[in-house]
Amino acid sequence: MSQITFGYSDSEDRVWLASTGGTRFWLTRRLVNGLLRPTCDLLEKTVPGGDVPNALPASQRIAIEHEESLADSPEGLPAIEKNKETRGAGNAPVKPPALVTIVTVQADASRCAWIVTAAAKPARIEVNRLEFHRLLAALYRTAEAAGWGLANLPGWLTGRPRPD
After folding, report:
1. What pLDDT band is residue 77 in, cutting at 50, 70 and 90?
2. pTM for the complete prediction?
3. 8 A C-beta contact, residue 15 and residue 7
4. Domain boundaries of the chain, sorted by first residue
């Protein structure tokens, strides 16, 4: 299985997305800002459990799902430790990064995907919901560390309540 990592290039003012297979993409500030909120909204709309009698509201179910996704892996390891050996810093990419022009988001009760289009070639990143939450959190943290000042995101992603 390919591992996905994010990083920030201050000289380009872009986030890079790279896979262990050597594929690397550039994500602009504008693209990331326009991607995070719709992704969060779709995850909330598709969060499982709405058919259960007296279920919590979707906003609370998604917050619980997100928190649990970041807490532990299915093997009981903290999420940060999972596949740590595959995240080598400083490895040169096999291909130069391609500028992403479109990202399409898909989600259902069990799987989620980003379809990333760069140079008119779509690449599909599809994982289970647990892993998707981890990807989303990693992208958010990378953009925050870059000082991009992303706004209007749900508290379950940012870790702080939204001002009303």
Report:
1. low
2. 0.84
3. yes
4. 4-158
